[in-house]
Design a protein that fits this description.
Elements (H helix, E strand, L loop, with lengths): L1 H12 L3 H12 L3 H11 L6 H25 L1 E3 L9 H6 L7 E3 L3 H16 L1 H6 L2 H12 L5 H42 L8
Antiparallel strand pairs: 1-2
């Protein structure tokens, strides 16, 4: 099924440069550093500062996990490696052709992590943000650089990491505030009442 999807996309849009360039632009928005820059902008505003911090930490974690753990252990060729004609998609999109990649799409993982965190902070706007990972995932399939199952795996990985780190960071902040409150209570109780002459 994976190859059938890539094959259909190539046969239908393979020679269409506008198609390739559009999805290349969408794909770029799911790049780790594009997400980190977005998080950095969020850090500049009080209302989005906490969300920006969570997104930056999560996406850096996803990048490190992919680069240092998952990619060296689990690799398989991209869709076009055994079918060189698919390289035309990336050539039309002015994209380089990496040799190997992990079982899941890092772009899909980053975008899903960002959307999941946005959803945890705001159910209303966070729900809309799931359009973002959907578009990023489609772009990776459309450019024939990932199989559909790799995009699905990326979405799952990004969601799991985002939720795990979200609850971990929330627990850390809660414990920090509790310990700080207890310390402040001890400090105030140690101050003796002034004596009257």
């Amino acid at each position: 099924m994976d190859f059938a999807i890539s094959n259909w996309l190539y046969n239908t849009f393979g020679a269409n440069k506008a198609f390739a360039i559009f999805w290349a632009i969408v794909s770029f928005l799911g790049n780790t550093w594009a997400v980190v820059v977005t998080a950095a902008v969020m850090l500049c505003f009080k209302k989005t500062r906490k969300l920006g911090l969570y997104i930056a930490i999560t996406c850096i974690f996803v990048f490190v996990a992919n680069s240092l753990v998952i990619k060296p252990i689990i690799e398989r060729p991209r869709p076009f490696v055994s079918h060189p004609e698919f390289t035309i998609m990336c050539e039309n999109a002015k994209m380089e052709l990496p040799k190997n990649y992990s079982m899941f799409s890092g772009h899909a993982a980053n975008s899903m992590a960002m959307a999941m965190l946005a959803f945890k902070f705001s159910k209303k706007w966070g729900g809309i943000s799931f359009i973002y990972p959907f578009m990023i995932g489609i772009s990776r399939i459309a450019l024939c650089v990932h199989y559909a199952t790799d995009v699905l795996a990326g979405w799952i990985f990004g969601a799991v990491v985002a939720l795990g780190l979200y609850y971990l960071m929330e627990m850390f902040i809660k414990n920090y505030k509790l310990s700080k409150g207890k310390n402040n209570g001890k400090d105030s109780s140690s101050i003796s009442e002034p004596t009257q002459d």
